[in-house]
Design goal:
By secondary structure, the chain is mainly beta. Helices cover 12% and strands 33% of the residues. The protein is built from seven helices and 34 strands. Strands 1, 29, 30, 31, 32 and 33 form a six-stranded mixed beta sheet that branches. It has a six-stranded mixed beta sheet with strand order 16-27-26-25-34-28, with no helix packed on it.
Length: 443
């Protein structure tokens, strides 16, 4: 699965072409706008339309490329989208010259022509970083998108089957049986299957080893091979329960009160800090065998949770092992498969790229964390993705869509991905908590 990161070389050309086309159409439909006298145009261009910095502004084009310095040759530090909000703290060389640059808080510069002063309009807010969505999928091919919430209105396009789409909350439209797309199109609720995102949340400051229950399972009592036969004597553990591990014996995981089959739990254990990572650095460890991720600050594990990594049966969907760095952080963005794959997921939350098109991100479309599920990315529950996104450096400035950590400067989060057959880290020696003394059941 790949997230769309627009090319700095191709997208500006497309934006310029789109802008030129729109201008030509406006000239045809409203010639009076372009029919002003030369002197009137001269007066208009002589007026500086920008407030005196600092002032609030928003990205009015499809994308805004934030450079480290006010020059197109400077390195890219962030990619903004239509509707993102920024604070302009100055202009280079000034706001009243031709082709000035806006200097942004906390850093970077963007061409002033990409901005509009003030707060984003209603349409732009639907795609800006502060936008909120609910989601659904198209169970059938050629699902229509209408220009208006009216089945008799123009069909502006038809979506393919099993596309995962985002919608803007609108209670009135929902009651009328319609949903609104971020681009302004409308779809019938009856044509969709709406998602209920997972509410699963991982464990902060975990004591390891820690077992996450993969699916509902009955506790086996000490000395017994199967759960009790009497219903009132059975202790059930629900999916996503987490339990301290007191011991491992073959296929048995000893927990308080008895044991569980190892195949029905995922065991989180700590690993040694990788070489080159300092005691103050933040880093992530992903275990493909046990399907978990853990976050560290130096030697201390500060978070652990279940994930769904790529399906290992095919090279194209496998999550790669190795050592990586987070090179992109995006609040929400669309993801699609390879050219031969019709996979499409819209406005995926909290995307953190680390290996080409592969990323850590929230998954609103399933609740099966702890098993392989993805096209190569690392799926997290929405809450877990939000936690790791906020924790990982650098922070994304308020109102922005994205930062590029490797160009931003400062600490970059290292990602270590292990598999059972190829380890990139060294496991710490298991330190089990003492197992409470329990009476052994008679056979």
């Amino acid at each position: 699965m790949e997230a769309e990161l627009p090319s700095a070389k191709t997208w500006p050309v497309r934006i310029l072409l789109a802008t030129a086309t729109a201008t030509a159409l406006l000239a045809l439909t409203a010639p009076q706008v372009f029919g002003a006298t030369k002197s009137a145009r001269a007066v208009k261009t002589a007026v500086n339309p920008w407030p005196t910095p600092p002032f609030a502004a928003w990205i009015k084009s499809d994308f805004g490329y934030v450079r480290d310095k006010p020059t197109h040759a400077s390195k890219l530090v962030a990619l903004l989208r239509l509707g993102d909000s920024v604070k302009v703290v100055g202009c280079a060389p000034s706001c009243d010259v031709a082709h000035p640059w806006a200097l942004l808080e906390p850093r970077g510069a963007v061409p002033l022509s990409h901005l509009r002063a003030g707060e984003p309009d209603a349409v732009a807010k639907m795609t800006g970083s502060s936008a909120t969505y609910f989601y659904g999928r198209t169970p059938r091919a050629r699902t229509p998108v209408f220009a208006k919430p009216d089945a008799n209105s123009k069909v502006i396009r038809k979506e393919k089957a099993e596309f995962r789409l985002a919608f803007v909350p609108n209670a009135y439209l929902s009651e009328m049986g319609w949903v609104q797309r971020p681009d302004g199109g409308y779809m019938r609720k009856a044509d969709l299957k709406l998602f209920t995102p997972s509410t699963f949340v991982g464990q902060k400051d975990p004591e390891t080893p820690l077992a996450f229950v993969r699916r509902k399972v009955a506790l086996r009592l000490p000395g017994q091979r199967k759960p009790p036969k009497i219903a009132d004597q059975i202790t059930w553990h629900a999916r996503y329960d987490r339990l301290p591990v007191h011991g491992l014996r073959g296929d048995k995981v000893e927990v308080k009160g008895g044991w569980l089959p190892k195949s029905l739990v995922r065991i989180v254990n700590a690993v040694e800090r990788p070489q080159g990572v300092s005691t103050s650095d933040r880093w992530l460890h992903v275990d493909l065998g046990q399907q978990f991720i853990s976050a560290y600050e130096g030697d201390k594990m500060v978070y652990a949770t279940l994930v769904s990594t790529g399906k290992s049966g095919r090279a194209s969907t496998r999550t790669h092992t190795g050592r990586f760095e987070l090179y992109g952080k995006t609040v929400h963005g669309s993801m699609r498969g390879k050219p031969w794959d019709d996979y499409y997921a819209e406005e995926v939350p909290y995307v953190m790229h680390f290996d080409g098109g592969r990323a850590l991100h929230g998954a609103y479309w399933h609740d099966q964390f702890g098993i392989e599920k993805s096209h190569g990315c690392i799926n997290l529950s929405p809450a877990d993705a939000a936690w790791i996104f906020a924790w990982a450096t650098p922070a994304v400035p308020a109102g922005w869509h994205n930062v590029l950590p490797t160009n931003w400067g400062g600490p970059v989060v290292t990602v270590m991905v292990d598999s059972p057959n190829k380890r990139e880290t060294k496991p710490r020696k298991l330190a089990f908590a003492p197992l409470p003394q329990l009476a052994v059941a008679k056979r």
